[in-house]
Write a structure and sequence with these properties.
alpha/beta; 5 helices; about 25% strand; about 180 residues; Stimulator of interferon genes protein (chains A, B); binds cGAMP; homodimer
Amino acid sequence: GVAHGLAWSYYLGYLKLVLPELEDRIKSYNVSHGNLLKHKETWRLHILLPLSCSIFDNLADVDSNIEFLDNLSELQINRAGIKGRSYKHSLYQVLDEDKRPHYCILEYATPLKSLLEMSKEASAEFTKEDRLEQTKLFYRTLKDILDNSQECRGRFRLVIYDGREDSGKSHFLSKELLR
Amino acid sequence: GVAHGLAWSYYLGYLKLVLPELEDRIKSYNVSHGNLLKHKETWRLHILLPLSCSIFDNLADVDSNIEFLDNLSELQINRAGIKGRSYKHSLYQVLDEDKRPHYCILEYATPLKSLLEMSKEASAEFTKEDRLEQTKLFYRTLKDILDNSQECRGRFRLVIYDGREDSGKSHFLSKELLR
Ligand SMILES: Nc1nc(=O)c2ncn([C@@H]3O[C@@H]4COP(=O)(O)O[C@H]5[C@@H](O)[C@H](n6cnc7c(N)ncnc76)O[C@@H]5COP(=O)(O)O[C@@H]3[C@@H]4O)c2[nH]1
């Protein structure tokens, strides 16, 4: 199915390549940035999975307590004919309910953006009902793959939520990330 | 199906973003590199589609007449939480049978690498027979999508071939590209 292929492609073409390299990138970031990410439990890629597929290119638009800080150093790999294809992660400051800052490596699961856009293209023959079903299947498949992956153990956190919460008022997402 | 989702994702999440920007990148490359890409018919992304899914990370290994030259300037887009996600294309020198150089923007269709790797993962439940069928479906679906895409018209060439040719001896791929 659609979700099956996207989950495997997301793992084989991205997470399996980048997650084993994450710890080194965080360590070198800490060296040049005063040991900002102190807590090793946060040394993970937080992957946002809104079941509504509502993906924002700018996280501050979702929750004003979340602010872009910096990118970690990029990884460059010669891949399928592209020389030095670039892979990078973004570091965010997340304020808690007392406005204290925490730091978090954060991004949406990009394949959900494909699912959203497919459901808007008439010729893709992919309805909104298909999309919800495939989004849940994407999550279950991805979770299974990652739970069985040696290379990725302990290096990610899947943050699944409805996606239609009014995050602006409630600061839903920052609270969810800091749980 | 798997191929349906990968073809749509490849279009919506990559080709639709990068192909409209290709001409500007070629023009600015020409300004700083003595008008190297002279022939406008070559101002296209040549997308390699070996039906065998045998994808090489280094094209010179496939055909010694094909040599990496340079990357065009990268495109950076804020996408799904990644600030300045980088998209780049590689420019290759391709020698013809008289050893004269031609220039070509070239890369494999990345989803074929996912199909290949899925067929090697036992838990993906995806056989080599599935893979060949899905690769053909990927090509047909992608061709349909691109033929109906205003944004991508005239900016790509799908280069489909078996993939098991002994390109090294016969220089199959360079000849195919220069046809
Ligand atoms: N040649 C090439 N150069 C690129 O820069 C590129 N970016 C995407 N793609 C291909 O387009 C399609 C859609 O991409 P999407 O981002 O939705 O999914 C991507 C995305 O969710 C994740 N991923 C891959 N590279 C990155 C990256 N650099 N940053 C974040 N996520 C990434 O893993 C999925 C599979 O990636 P690929 O298997 O490399 O092929 C993709 C895919 O077939 C590319 N293909």
